[in-house]
Design a protein that fits this description.
about 260 residues; mainly alpha; Transferase(Phosphotransferase), domain 1; two-stranded antiparallel sheet; 10 helices; globular
Length: about 260
């Protein structure tokens, strides 16, 4: 997130290709943003690309899919997809959907599902990056601050307070308590490392949104044809803007003005 904060401070560099594949990890564990081949320097935080330009469909915001308009807000959408990639250990977004199906899914209000290992507060933060209106998404600075606060809170909660600092002779009750705590911690670790089936989110509102997204996904698949196997082809990742808008026009989701 610090990379996005920096890009906004230079007023403005729009990256336009933020995805997990463009983040590099150094030998010292530092994560750096690369892939600036499609970046643009603009003065008013707005860049309209050619309608025939290739688009990274599954990482792109609705305004990019519809009008090829990029901004720091569209970069935030892509950053949300990157966080989803991290939380799913590198799964491909919208797995099983073609580029055309993914576009229709997003424009119908569909969003990526809640990863099994992702805490609810973190997923709520990720979803805030996928607001349909660009101005409703958090800024890079706000996103970085909220992530930092979340990490600090998790670290604070992980610290086990001790009643005293001096050594005491263990009693039978303290041994039993320590044994129970060790057993609980072992069981919790085992559950975290095991493969869990998808369960309900902690927030009822998110459950409703997930149900809506699943319904939208089913509708997209029925309108676009049978679900396709993920092939990893370039067509699955990139598509021309003009081709995307032909699909939206065909299904009456968007019409040229």
């Amino acid at each position: 997130m610090s990379a996005l904060c920096y890009l906004k401070t230079v007023h403005y560099i729009i990256h336009r290709d933020i995805a997990a594949r463009n983040f590099l990890v150094t030998q010292h564990g530092a994560v750096k943003l690369g892939g600036f081949g499609r970046a643009r320097y603009v003065h008013d935080d707005d860049y309209e690309a050619s309608t025939s330009e290739m688009i990274s469909v599954k990482w792109s915001a609705p305004e990019v899919l519809v009008t090829s308009r990029y901004s720091t807000h569209s970069d935030i959408w892509s950053a949300g997809v990157v966080m989803w990639e991290v939380m799913t250990r590198g799964q491909r977004p919208y797995e099983g959907l073609s580029a055309e199906q993914a576009v229709l899914y997003v424009m119908n209000g569909g969003r990526l599902d809640h990863p099994n290992q992702c805490p609810q507060p973190v997923f709520s933060l990720i979803r805030s990056c996928w607001q349909h209106r660009p101005e409703d998404r958090p800024s890079a600075t706000d996103l970085a601050n909220r992530l930092h606060s979340r990490v600090q809170l998790d670290l604070a909660e992980s610290v086990i307070p001790r009643s005293s600092t001096h050594c005491q002779t263990p009693t039978s009750s303290s041994v039993a308590t320590d044994s129970a705590a060790t057993e609980f911690e072992s069981e919790r670790t085992s559950r975290q490392m095991s493969v869990k089936q998808p369960d309900k989110c902690g927030d009822g509102d998110v459950d409703d949104r997930s149900a809506t997204s699943s319904s939208a996904s089913s509708s997209v698949r029925s309108r676009c044809g049978p679900q396709q196997e993920s092939t990893g082809s370039a067509e699955d990742l990139l598509s021309r803007g003009s081709k995307i808008r032909q699909s939206l026009n065909k299904f009456a989701i968007w019409k040229p003005s």
